[in-house]
Amino acid sequence: MPGGVNSPVRAFKNVDGKPIFFKSAKGPILIDEDDNQYIDFIGSWGPMILGHSNPVVLNAIRAQLELGTSYGAPTSLESILASLIKSQVPTMEKLRMVNSGTEATMSCIRLARGYTGKDKIIKFTGCYHGHVDSLLVKAGSGVSTFGLPDSPGIPSKLAALTYSCPYNDIEAVSEVVNEIGDDLAAIIVEPIAGNMGFIPGEHKFLSTLRELCNKSESLLIFDEVMSGFRVALGGAQSIYSIKPDLTALGKVIGGGLPVGSFGGKQSIMDQLAPIGPIYQAGTLSGNPLAMSAGVALLEAVINLNPFDELQIASSEIMLHIKNLMNEKGIPFSTSSIGGMFGFFLSENLPRNFEDVLETDDEMFKNFFNAALNQGIYFAPSRFEAGFISSTHDQDIIDQTKYKIEKAIKEL
Ligand SMILES: *Cc1c(COP(=O)(O)O)cnc(C)c1O
Q1: What's the predicted TM-score (pTM) here?
Q2: What's the 344 CA to ligand 1 centre distance in angstroms?
Q3: Residue to mutate (ligand 1; options 6, 9, 105, 284; most atoms within 8 A of CB)
Q4: Which domains does the chain have, with CATH numbers?
């Protein structure tokens, strides 16, 4: 496998490390092939919000396993998962299941272009929307980490239809919409960004995007693949009270199996085949094994509504680190919402990708590796967010604080 991995960030290239191969996970703990234990702050990039190997999810998968893994035909499980999602994210009046976040955003873009009859889209530098051709233009995390603002293999004619603006910059995006509004199909944004580190959108910025889309008769797409069921039950859109036309989901809704979803206004969604002319399909879309995991996890998350608790837990750890760092004279900034958090080696919190580039990458690497040596598994890049689970109880929090104290002593 190129780089030894099936997804680039896992290679640990940007922290001068080697990928760790895992063999099992339970609650907040990952165990590698050499039996080393780590306290996990990635949680499979989001889905493990109630901890690894959650018994409720495992039992649901086990029960479905006995009934078959795929029929290539409709099941009631798909309807149940769709209803659960819609109950918490009501802007998704109709939705479809797909197999990844990439598929979800890709389908949103096609739908927006087909519905509006326009071709251009606006995205924001540092926001990552999967490895879709049209969206892999100044994308965050993996791509920016490896210094590839655009990827070879993406036709320049297609990339030319994508305009990239700085995040949280109202003036810049307003100017571009003024210029290309007549050709604009959609603005796509991570309302709470997790792919240039953790950077929440500012309310005024997001509400301006809503107005700009209304004015130019283009669609507002919220990519909540990461923030959906991670920052709040209703996602970022419920926190900001802003209604996108289309939403993309992934990660948490699959309960650790490959699932994505996209949805929005009924009038738009009904343009999809077989009702409308815009084509979208999937052999394994909505497959019962993945649906059973998603249903079990979402039911449990909705029941528990753990988001306040998660925020308190990550804040306790992060503030502890901030104090220790400041004692050593090392700049450190941090923030969190629900089960997502972030930190930067900088005095002030960055507002966009350009700010993140100014943070101290060497110190990030040193801190990351020192923490890893103590068995703390943070995301291996300053362009990624952190994730905590409901199984990170007070004992795990205390252990984390103690181990990080030892790690910081080594810096
Ligand atoms: C992870 C992610 C994607 C892509 O999802 P995949 O399942 O990896 O294809 C898209 N958008 C955002 C915001 C993400 O965090």
Answers
A1: 0.97
A2: 22
A3: 105
A4: 2-54+305-409 (3.90.1150.10), 56-303 (3.40.640.10)
